[in-house]
Amino acid sequence: MSMYKSGLDMLRCALRSTSLWKCDSFILTQTSLCYKSRSFAVSSQLERKSTQGHTLKQARYYCQSAEDVQIKQTAASTETNELPDKVEKAPFYTHLQNCLCPTDVLDTLKKFPASQQHVSSIFSRMWESSKRMTDEQRRCELQLMFEHPLFEQVCERAMTEAWRMRSEDLAYSLLASVNLGVSQNTRLVQTLLRVVQERLNQFDIRSLSVLASCIREMENSRNVQALREALRCDDHCRPKTNITSVCVCVCFISLCSDFGRLLLKDRIPEIQSVVFLQSMMRAVGKNSPILLKKQLATKALSLADEFSPPNTQYMFSSLAAMGLNFKPLLDVCSKKIAENVHEFPFGRLLSVLKSCHELHYRNYTLFSSISEYVANTFDMWSNKQVILLLVTFENLSFRPVILLDAFAERIIQRSNSLTLKDLLSVLKIFSLLNHDLKEKKTEFLASVTMVLESYLPKLPPTDLLKAVHYLGLLEHFPRAPLEKLLQKDTLDQLLQKAKQLDKIQRWLHTLDLFLRLDKPRLPPSLTSVPELHITVPAHEVKVNQEVLSAVRSIVGTDALQDNVLEQSIYLIDCVITLPHQTEETSALSAEECARRIAVFCAPPTSFCFGTTHPRASLAIKLRHLEKLGYKPVVVPVLELNSKTEEEKIELLQKLIFPAQEPTGTQEIPNNRPKAE
């Protein structure tokens, strides 16, 4: 039997005799034992070295000789002192940056063989290029990557050079290989984990943050668990003043939860780095105790004066990663972003808005500053960017008036540039936000209708229903799309799908309301409105008893009817039928006296954020109630709740019996911006 001088030689021999994509139980067992032995070695050596004022440079394994340790120390020092030739380095990175997929990266290696400094960049670029692909494209590209003849060589080179890599390159290589889908039981990943364990004391904050995010997402295998345990033991042995130990704690906090969270909680006051604090916030996650999340957010608030522009943006995503809506911190970051909005690229602004939606946070000043900045620099943004931004604003119920007007003008001038997906998004945005283009409305609707008709031959029934639904919300019913939608075959397909999807069922019900109440001009092939026989359950909204009581005190009980449901979908809190001759109606004509007044409450979600401009659901309700012979009176719940009993009666008196009859739909008072 051959003897080995060290555990490293034994591991290398085992790896050489094992397939690259196969990891046997012997390697797992030996690696796990080395992890645990290393933790013990770190503990004992730290105790000895702490009194001498030295920093531990290399952990010694139970089966390592002093000669092996010396060799690796020399290799590490040589790696940090020898810089690559910039002339030779530049062409490789230039070609690497132009690679659009993992196989392009591997093909580049035919011209530029991978060196020690290139390995981490190769893995990172392959991962980066795959992130921008669709799921199907990514699956195909990764399959081609695994089958590429040079991929195995790169993996072999990574394992060979792992002991000489810088800590940052080591962390990024591990993160990229795991995210590329390399099995965590392969020799590549297990070797990187082993080297990470040995070199952990040399990791800086950035490298530890990358390692933390990687370890947190990895499967809980024996080797990964052993690394987490080694990190925990390592944290015990470090002095409490060493803030790096807190970052190490992040690596195992998700699974070693109770112990890790206690350590983290005690050391939060020591943190002085904003980037480091944000890494911990993201690592803590949504399942941690609310008290720990608030302590981290409070610490971040105390460091707010040190926030750079990128710090403010990452704070939104960090709080979203924790699932914590900490309003004082979000308000500070919103103010900083609003004041320096021109310093942020499009992707970061979009990330901020998506985090706001995830956190259910609204800030009128922040939203207005972003929308005005994009509107003022409108020519530099593509259709895709503007649509992504507007879709996010619509999810936040915010109506960026200037930006919508500018985009509508572009659509009128260049409608042919819209893809089908763009068109459906545009129709959704303008209809759900109930945006009034005023004198431009006719041109805008004509432009989008022309684009829709060009896609009619290949338009699926569901997308056709969606498009007609959005146009119907804008009170526009183009003939060709409506004719195709009302064909028997198309309706039969949609009715079949409606049994499975509630959304399609509600769209068909709304289509039925459009046909019966708005009475659009039917195609010549139809002599009457088709019977769709669609019924939807009414929204479970209770009558507002405060409003009902206040209205009774104004008009009495004889002229009042409460809890009225129209068309099985429109709930009215109370209907007032005015008598022919009363003190209040003596100045009105007989036709106006007989008119019914529909009083109903509207929650804040019925309005665009920061204003009392009605969204689509409220706007269509107002329109249809008028066609049914009612005079609709909307009572904003948020405004009503802030008033006393006498003020409520006075407000309802003004809404129901205004001094001057308004034209069109009711104008709701108090139209001013608000921040939540």
Question: Care to give the gist of this entry?
Answer:
Helix content is 61%, strand content 4%. The protein is mainly alpha-helical and 676 residues long.
Structure in words:
This protein is mostly helical. The protein is built from 33 helices and four strands. The longest helix has 26 residues, at 25-50. The termini are far apart. Mean pLDDT is 77; it is low at 1-8, 10-89, 233-246, 248-257, 582-586 and 660-676. Residues 597-654 form the RAP domain. One of its GO terms (biological process) is regulation of mitochondrial mRNA stability.
Write the layout of secondary structure elements.
Layout lengths: L6 H10 L8 H26 L15 H16 L4 H12 L4 H7 L10 H13 L3 H13 L1 H13 L5 H13 L7 H12 L6 H13 L4 H16 L6 H10 L3 H11 L6 H11 L5 H13 L6 H14 L4 H13 L6 H14 L4 H13 L6 H13 L5 H13 L6 H13 L8 H15 L5 H13 L5 H7 L2 H11 L3 H17 L26 H11 L4 E7 L3 E8 L12 H4 L2 E7 L13 H12 L2 E7 H5 L3 H12 L20
Parallel strand pairs: 3-4
Antiparallel strand pairs: 1-2, 2-3
Helix pairs in contact: 1-2, 2-10, 2-12, 5-6, 6-9, 8-10, 9-10, 9-11, 10-12, 11-13, 11-15, 12-13, 13-14, 13-15, 15-16, 15-17, 17-18, 17-19, 18-20, 19-21, 21-23, 22-24, 23-25, 25-26, 25-28, 27-28, 29-33
